[in-house]
Amino acid sequence: MQTLISGTTMPVLEIGLDPGEIIVAPPGEMAWMTPNVRMNTTMAAAGSSGLWGAITRAVSGGGLFMTEFTCDGGSGGVAFTPKVPGQILPVEVAAGRGYMVHKHGFLCGTQGVVLTTALQRNLGAGIFGGEGFLLQHITGPCQAWVALGGEVISPELAAGETLLVHPGHVGMFEDSVTFDITTISGIRNALFGGDGIFLVRLTGPGRVWLQTMTVPTLAHALAPYMGRESAPATNQDPGSAAVSGVMRGIFGSDR
Question: What is the DSSP letter of 132?
Answer without folding.
Answer: G
